[in-house]
Structure formats: structure tokens, C-alpha cells
From TrEMBL:
This is (wild Malaysian banana) hypothetical protein. It comes from Musa acuminata subsp. malaccensis. Residues 30-103 form the Bifunctional inhibitor/plant lipid transfer protein/seed storage helical domain. Pfam families: LTP_2. GO terms for molecular function: fatty acid binding. One of its GO terms (biological process) is systemic acquired resistance. InterPro entries: Bifun_inhib/LTP/seed_sf, Bifunc_inhib/LTP/seed_store, DIR1-like, NsLTP-like. Residues 1-26 form the signal peptide. Keywords: Signal.
Length: 103
């Protein structure tokens, strides 16, 4: 019975963390607006991703705080909200930008 309570608590914690992540993303994330994040979503999606980012995505990425975005590269929550971290890390190169050295 105790393990069931722990499982439920863990599941609730994951749902809460994902909801909080989505709420932060709805406002802005690392100086990227919701519109910028939405523009990049097709090429970082876990399902049938686009090969190349749109011009709107690259424009948003050029305004973003790349070191801040790098801090999310190992997040286990990103796949739960449909984002492939490996594809996200490829965005600067696809937008002809240099990735941060510490990324």
C-alpha cells in the first residue's frame, strides 16, 4: 500500500513539474516569447519533426539567452511536453549561429 502512495505522489510531482514548465513557457523562457517557442516547436518535436527551422524560429533564437537554454539540455521533462532535447541543441547550427562554448 505504501508503494502505491509513493507512486501516486511521484506521478503527481511529474504532472506538477510539467504543468509548471508549460506555465513558464507560456510567458517566456530564456528571453524567448511563446510565439518564438511555438515557431521552433515543429523542428524540435518528438513526433515527425521538421528538418529545418523556420525563419521565425531562427529570429526568435537570435534574441534568446542561449546559455540559459543550454541549462535545459539534460531535462528529463522536455520529452513529456513533446520536445526532443537533442534536436533542440541542433537549432543554433541550423540557424547559422554559434552555440555557447559551455553548452
Amino acid at each position: 500500500m505504501e508503494w502505491k502512495l509513493r507512486s501516486v505522489a511521484l506521478a503527481m510531482a511529474v504532472v506538477l513539474a510539467v504543468a509548471c514548465t508549460m506555465e513558464v513557457a507560456a510567458q517566456s523562457l530564456c528571453k524567448m516569447s511563446q510565439e518564438g517557442l511555438d515557431a521552433c516547436r515543429p523542428c524540435i518535436s518528438t513526433v515527425k519533426p521538421a528538418e529545418q527551422p523556420s525563419d521565425a524560429c531562427c529570429a526568435a533564437l537570435k534574441q534568446a539567452d542561449l546559455p540559459c537554454l543550454c541549462s535545459y539540455k539534460n531535462s528529463v521533462l522536455l520529452p513529456y511536453i513533446g520536445i526532443d532535447p537533442k534536436r533542440a541543441m541542433q537549432l543554433p547550427a541550423k540557424c547559422s549561429m554559434a552555440a555557447p562554448q559551455q553548452c
